[in-house]
Each structure stands twice: as structure tokens, then as C-alpha cells.
Amino acid sequence: MNKIKKLKLHGFNNLTKTLSFNIYNVCYTRNKKDQLSYTKSINETYNSTKLISILRDVSDIIGAKILNIAQQDYEPMGTSVTMMISEQVNKHSDPQTLVAHLDKSHLTVHTYPESHPDLGVCTFRTDIDVSTCGDVPPLKALNYLIECFESDIAIVDYRIRGFTRDTKGEKHFIDHKINSIQDFLSIAIKKRYNIMDINVIPENIFHSKMLLKEIIISNYLFDGNTSELSDNEYQQIKKYLEQEMLEIYQGKNC
């Protein structure tokens, strides 16, 4: 993993760095009852209390201070959590510099459980934004969030906006080396996923799409029981799951 080196700056760091995720988890339910039970379990597992705990971990990982938390559990489904963050305070902090970061650094997460109207496929989507200003590095949270949500598909964007100046007055539109989001992924994660990049490096825009390589059907059945499935049922369910995941990964209906 690449280390982020600090520049010697004139004033504080004006760069805004945003790491955004669409994370998807897919499940197969055999009937309407299981479908409703799955949706209920997702809402209970990833309620606002759980998501706040995850974002607190993210804040610790990137070295930020939490200033404010807003949360909302929706009916019948879905949750939103937003945190305002700043750089960690220390005795050398300039209060005015700290204030400059308050409205530009935040963590947000929104959940979207949904299901196919005819087939048994259910998809749980989590949208996450880790947006920071200054020296707080959002890429440090990359591996944690992918692992935390046990992602089947992850669509990840990283963008750097604005510029900052060094002590000589020269503008810097990026303050660390990066060729791809993959530079910051763990070896274990890269082994588990097929990954495709679409990067606009001159504009400091980086985009990676990740699809889990191996589908173990028992992990995707809501009750986890494959013993009652015929060979035809097993293959049909596998086809449904693979199509759902491939369509999300490619961003189009197959």
C-alpha cells in the first residue's frame, strides 16, 4: 500500500478528497415470506446505531474528530447517518484553520434494501461518502469499508478537488501519489475480486468496479440450506445471482 507523503504547505491544506462507495450485497429468497424476513433482518442489522458505530470506526481510522451526528431510520426500510468531522485537534491547532474544515468534512451512509418483483433475488445497496478537507486521508478507510459490508460488488470513486500551495507559492492539485484505487487495496481483497478501472488521471478522478470472483450458493440463500434443492433449482438460482451481480457490475441489463 502506498504511503501518503505530506507537502510543506503555505497555510492549511485546501484540497477536498472524496471517497465514495456503492456497495451491493445480493441474496436469494425462495418465497415472499423469506423476502420480507430478509428485508427486516437487513434493516435490523444495519440500523442507525450499527451504522454510527461503523462511521465512528472510519473516523478513528482516518484520524478525524467527530463534531456532529445526524441519524434517521426510515419506514418501511432504509437508514441514513451523517457525521460532520474535522482534523484531530492538538495543542498546535489554529482555531481558524479548524473552523475552515468544519463544513467541508463529513461521513455519510445511506442504505437501500430492494427486491426483484418476480424472481427471488434481493439486493441491499449501501452508499457511503467519506469527504475530507486538509490532511485527513479518506483512502485509509477503503479496505475497512469493503470488508465491513462483506461486499459482493463495490463501485468505488475517489476524486480530489481544488488546489493547495506549498511554501514557495506553487499550486498542488494533488498531495499524494496515486495511479489507481487498487494501489490502496489490500492483497487479500484484490485476490477475491475482479477489478476494472476507469481513471481520468489528469483530472484526479479514479473509478474502480469490483465483483466477487467466487459465488458459493449457500452463502446467498436466505436460509442457507441447499440440501433441498434439485440440480435444476441449484443451477437456476446460481444463474439468477450471477446475472444480478453482473448487471450491477456492468451497469446495464444483460
Describe what this molecule looks like in 3D:
This protein is of the alpha+beta class and 254 residues long. It has a single domain (16-250), classed as S-adenosylmethionine decarboxylase (4-Layer Sandwich), CATH 3.60.90. It has helices at 32-45, 48-62, 95-102, 142-148, 187-192, 231-250, and strands at residues 16-28, 64-73, 79-87, 106-115, 121-133, 153-161, 164-165, 171-172, 193-197, 205-212. The chain has an 8-stranded antiparallel sheet with strand order 2-3-4-5-1-6-10-9, with helices on both faces. The relative contact order is 0.21. Residues 89-103 have low confidence and may be disordered.
Give a concise summary.
The chain has 254 residues and is α+β, with helices and mostly antiparallel strands. The protein has helices at residues 32-45, 48-62, 95-102, 142-148, 187-192, 231-250; strands at 16-28, 64-73, 79-87, 106-115, 121-133, 153-161, 164-165, 171-172, 193-197, 205-212. The protein is elongated.
Features:
S-adenosylmethionine decarboxylase, 254 residues, 28% helix, elongated, two-stranded antiparallel ribbon, 6 helices, single chain, alpha+beta, 8-stranded antiparallel sheet
Low-confidence stretches: 89-103
The helicity comes to 25-40%
Structural class comes to alpha+beta
CATH homologous superfamily descriptor: S-adenosylmethionine decarboxylase
Total domains: 1
How many β-strand stretches? Answer: 10
| Distance between the first and last residues' Cα | 35 Å
The major β-sheet equals:
8 strands, antiparallel
What is the 3D form? elongated
Q: Could you state the order of secondary-structure elements as H and E? A: EHHEEHEEHEEEHEEH
CATH class: Alpha Beta
